[in-house]
Design a protein that fits this description.
- InterPro entries: AB_hydrolase_fold, Pept_S9A_N, Peptidase_S9_cat, Peptidase_S9A, Prolyl_oligopep/macrocyclase.
- GO terms for molecular function: oligopeptidase activity; serine-type endopeptidase activity.
- This is Prolyl oligopeptidase family serine peptidase.
- One of its GO terms (cellular component) is cytosol.
- By secondary structure, the protein is of the alpha+beta class.
- The protein has a domain of about 300 residues: Rossmann fold (3-Layer(aba) Sandwich), CATH 3.40.50.
- The chain is built from 13 helices and 39 strands.
- The protein has an eight-stranded mixed sheet with strand order 32-33-35-34-36-37-38-39, sandwiched between helices. Strands 5, 6, 7, 8 and 9 form a five-stranded antiparallel sheet that branches.
Length: about 725
C-alpha cells in the first residue's frame, strides 16, 4: 500500500519520543502557596517524573493495590473482564489483511498467542470463512527465547518483492523500537543482517544492501523533542558509526529525516528529505543533481503518493501557485517526469477539493487509481480517481451510507483494495473492491458482540461559548429515555486534527449499553472532523475553545434531559486525557466520573516530560511568557486546588509510556491526595501509550474503567 502522509506532521517520522530531559534536583520543600509552586524547583512531586525510580515505583505499587482493592473486588469486575477478553480474543473476528506479492498478511493476537503471530495466506484462502494460515513469525516464541517483552510494531519491506523486511520490535510497548532484518521466505531473521539498536526513528530501503537510516546517532543528533535530526546511508556490514550522514535538520527542528519515494511497482523516483519545523510545519527537499533542493510548497503541504505518471500533494492551507488557488484540504497533482526535471517549475492541477463540512481523511493508491477517503459531516465515503486522456475521472464507491469507512490495504500490482465499513451499532464489514472490473463485495463480516436490539443513534448539536455549533453522537440503549435520564459515558479528543468517527461499539456495547448506559461521542474543534480549519480554529492561544466545546456538550446533554450531573462520566486518553482534566477542573459540578487515560496534565512542564516538546505547535511553549499566559489558565495540574470538589477521577497510565509519560497522571494523583480529594490511580507496568500489549492486559484495563463507571454512575446516580 503506497501512501504518504503530508510531511508537515511529526507522524511521518514514524518514531516516538525519548525519555524526559534531565530533571532538577528534588527539593524537600512542600510549600504550595507560591505562584511558582509547580515549577521544577518547587513542585513537591517532581520525583515522580523518574519513570523507573525505586521510590516512584513503590508509590505506584501502593496506588495500584489501593485501586484494585476498590474495583477488582466488585462482583462485576471479573464478569466485565471475562466479557472483554472474550471479545478481544474471539476467533471469529475479522482478520484484517494486507496485500503482499506472496499473499495476504495478518497480525493476530488471541489467548494462545497473546503477543501475536505474523501470518499469511493466499487470496483464495482468505476469501473463505476459514482461511488456512501459515505462521511467518511467532512473537510469543521470540519473546520467550530472548527473555524480552516484545511487542510487534510493524515492518518496512524492500520493494517490489517485499520479502526482505525490517521488523520493528518494542520492549514492553515503548515507542522506541529495535529494527531487525527478516526474511519472509525463510521465516527467520537474516544472519548478520541489518540490526538497528533501540531508538525512535525510521529506515527506508534504497536497495537490498543499503538503507537510509534516521535514528539516534549520539550527541547532537536528536532534537529537544526526542526525534532524530540526521539520516545516514548504511551499507550492509557497515557499522552505524561509519555510515556517512546524508541529511541533517536544524537543532531547533522537531525532527528531520529522509526516505525513498517509489511508485506502486517499487521503482525509485526520488529521494526525499524533510525538516519538521514543528508538529504542523515542515520544509521538504528532493535530491536533485546531487543537491538537496527545497520544494516550493507551503509548510503545511506535503507529498501524498504517486499514481501512474502523476505525483500527488496534499495541503492544509490555501495554496496559490501559477495563478491558481487550491483551497485548504485539497489534493493536487503534477506530471511526475516534469517534476523530476524541475521540481519547482511544474504546473499543478486540482484532483479533489472539499465541499461544505467535508474533509479528506486519507489517500491510497493502487497500480491504476487513487482512492480518497472523505468525511462528509462525519460520515464516510470513498471516491476513486483514474487518470484518463489527461483528465481525472471520478467514481464514488457504492458503500453503505451513514458509516465510518476506511481503506485497509491496497495492492501494488493490481487495482484491488480492502475497505472497512462500520457504525456504532453495525458490526464491521470488510469489503473487497477490484477497480479493473468495478467489482465490490462483502468479503467478511464481524459477528455482533452485543445485543443492539432497541438501541438507537442520534446526532445532536451543542452551542459552544462563542456560538459555534458542536456536533455529537448519542447512542441510547434499549428503551432510550423511557425511564428518564441515563448514565452516560462521554468521550472526546479535540486535537492534532484527528477525527472522532462512529465505530462499532463491541466492548462498550457489551459492557455498558447492555447494562442500560448511554454513550456519547463528541466532535470538538481541534479535531479533524471538518478539515484543517476545524483543527486550526482551536490550537495554541485558542485551545480553550476545545475545552469549551466539550463542556457545552455536557451542558446540552443535561439540558435535553439525556443525563444528569450525577450520571455523567467522561473518558479520554492522551490529548483526550488533557481534555478530561480541563473539564473536571473548570466545571467539576457537571460530572460524577472521569477516566483520565495516559494524559497530558502538567502543561507548564510538558515540554520537559516525554515527547512533550514536539507538541508546542499544538499548545504553545509555556517557557515563553506570552504563551504561558494562555496555557496556565487551563493546565489541569495547577488547577487541582483546595476548595474544589472533583468527581473522584480514575487515572490510568503505563510505566512504559515514553510518549506522554506516566508522571502526568502520577503527579495529579499525588496532588489530589495532598488536598484530601478522593481519586483512583492505576499504572500498567507494560503496554506503552496505546494501553496494553496483549488482550489480557487490555481486558483488565477495560474492566477497571467500566467497574469504576458503574460504581460512580449507576450505583450512586443522583436522579
Amino acid at each position: 500500500m503506497k501512501t504518504l502522509l503530508a510531511q508537515s506532521s511529526a507522524l511521518t517520522l514514524a518514531i516516538a519520543a525519548l525519555a524526559p530531559l534531565p530533571l532538577m534536583a528534588q527539593t524537600a520543600s512542600t510549600d504550595t502557596t507560591g505562584e511558582n509552586m509547580f515549577e521544577a524547583e518547587n513542585d513537591p512531586y517532581i520525583w515522580l517524573e523518574e519513570a523507573r525510580d525505586e521510590k516512584a515505583l513503590a508509590w505506584v505499587e501502593d496506588e495500584n493495590n489501593r485501586t484494585l482493592a476498590a474495583l477488582a473486588t466488585d462482583p462485576r469486575f471479573d464478569e466485565l473482564q471475562a466479557e472483554a477478553l472474550a471479545i478481544l480474543d474471539a476467533q471469529d473476528r475479522v482478520p484484517y489483511g494486507s496485500f503482499y506479492p506472496d499473499g495476504i498478511y495478518n497480525f493476530w493476537q488471541d489467548e494462545t498467542n497473546p503477543k501475536g503471530l505474523i501470518r499469511r495466506t493466499t487470496m483464495d484462502s482468505y476469501r473463505t470463512d476459514n482461511p488456512v494460515w501459515e505462521t511467518v513469525l511467532d512473537i510469543d516464541a521470540l519473546a520467550k527465547a530472548e527473555g524480552r517483552e516484545w511487542a510487534y510494531s510493524g515492518r518496512t519491506c524492500l520493494e517490489p518483492e517485499r520479502t526482505l523486511c525490517l521488523l520493528s520490535l518494542s520492549d514492553g510497548g515503548k515507542d522506541a523500537t529495535v529494527m531487525r532484518e527478516f526474511d519472509g521466505k525463510t521465516g527467520k531473521f537474516v544472519e548478520d543482517g541489518f540490526d538497528l539498536p533501540e531508538s525512535i526513528g525510521s529506515a527506508s530501503w534504497v536497495d537490498r544492501d543499503t538503507l537510509l537510516v534516521t535514528r539516534d546517532f549520539g550527541e547532537g543528533t536528536m532534537s529537544e523533542s526526542g526525534y532524530p535530526l540526521t539520516t545516514r546511508l548504511l551499507k550492509r556490514g557497515q557499522s552505524l558509526s561509519d555510515a556517512p550522514e546524508v541529511f541533517r535538520g536544524e537543532p531547533t527542528d522537531l525532527g528531520a529525516g529522509s526516505y525513498v519515494l517509489r511508485d506502486s511497482d517499487g521503482v525509485e523516483h526520488a529521494r526525499i528529505a524533510y525538516r519538521s519545523i514543528d508538529f504542523w510545519n515542515s520544509a521538504n527537499f528532493v535530491e536533485h543533481d546531487g543537491k538537496w533542493v527545497q520544494l516550493d510548497i507551503p509548510s503545511k503541504a506535503g507529498l501524498a503518493g504517486i499514481v501512474g505518471d502523476r505525483l500527488l500533494f496534499s495541503t492544509d492551507v490555501d495554496w496559490t501557485v501559477g495563478g491558481i488557488t487550491f483551497p485548504a484540504d485539497s489534493i493536487v497533482s503534477v506530471d511526475l517526469e516534469d517534476w523530476k526535471r524541475d521540481p519547482n517549475g511544474v504546473d499543478y492541477e486540482l484532483v479533489w477539493a472539499p465541499g461544505d463540512r467535508q474533509t479528506a481523511q486519507g489517500v491510497a493508491v493502487t497500480s491504476d487509481a487513487l482512492y480518497v477517503s472523505v468525511l462528509d459531516n462525519v460520515r464516510g465515503r470513498v471516491i476513486r480517481y483514474e487518470r484518463d486522456g489527461g483528465k481525472w475521472r471520478t467514481k464514488p464507491l457504492a458503500l453503505p451510507d451513514n458509516s465510518t469507512i476506511g481503506v485497509i490495504s491496497t495492492a501494488d500490482t493490481s487495482d484491488e483494495l480492502m475497505i472497512n465499513v462500520t457504525g456504532f451499532l453495525e458490526p464491521s464489514q470488510l469489503f473487497y473492491y477490484d477497480g479493473s472490473s468495478d467489482t465490490l463485495e462483502v468479503l467478511k463480516t464481524s459477528p455482533a458482540r452485543f445485543d443492539a436490539a432497541g438501541a438507537s443513534v442520534v446526532q445532536q448539536e451543542a452551542t459552544s461559548r462563542d456560538g459555534t455549533k458542536i456536533p455529537y453522537f448519542v447512542v441510547l440503549p434499549k428503551g432510550g429515555l423511557d425511564k428518564g435520564p441515563l448514565p452516560v459515558r462521554m468521550t472526546g479528543y479535540g486535537g492534532f486534527q484527528n477525527a472522532n468517527t462512529p465505530g462499532y461499539l463491541g466492548l462498550t456495547g457489551k459492557l455498558w449499553l447492555e447494562r442500560g448506559g448511554a454513550y456519547v461521542l463528541t466532535n470538538l474543534r481541534g479535531g479533524g472532523e471538518f478539515g484543517p480549519s476545524w483543527h486550526q480554529n482551536a490550537i495554541r492561544e485558542n485551545k480553550q475553545r476545545t475545552w469549551d466545546d466539550f463542556i457545552a456538550v455536557a451542558e446540552d446533554l443535561q439540558a435535553r434531559g439525556i443525563t444528569t450531573p450525577g450520571q455523567l462520566g467522561i473518558t479520554g486518553g492522551s490529548q483526550g486525557g488533557l481534555l478530561v482534566g480541563t473539564a473536571i477542573t473548570q466545571r467539576p459540578e457537571l460530572f460524577n466520573a472521569a477516566v483520565v487515560w495516559v494524559p497530558l496534565f502538567d502543561m507548564l512542564r510538558y515540554p520537559y516530560i516525554g515527547r512533550g516538546a514536539s507538541w508546542i505547535g499544538e499548545y504553545g511553549d509555556p517557557r515563553i511568557a506570552e504563551q504561558r499566559a494562555w496555557i496556565e489558565p487551563y493546565s489541569p495540574y495547577q488547577a487541582l486546588l483546595n476548595g474544589k470538589d472533583f468527581p473522584s477521577p480514575l487515572f490510568i497510565t503505563s510505566t512504559a509510556d515514553d510518549r506522554t509519560h506516566p508522571s502526568h497522571g502520577r503527579k495529579a494523583a499525588a496532588r489530589l491526595a495532598e488536598i484530601g480529594q478522593p481519586y483512583y490511580y492505576f499504572e500498567d507496568t507494560v503496554g506503552g501509550h496505546s494501553g496494553g500489549v496483549d488482550n489480557a492486559q487490555r481486558a483488565k484495563l477495560q474492566a477497571i474503567e467500566f467497574t469504576y463507571m458503574m460504581q460512580r454512575l449507576m450505583d450512586k446516580a443522583e436522579n
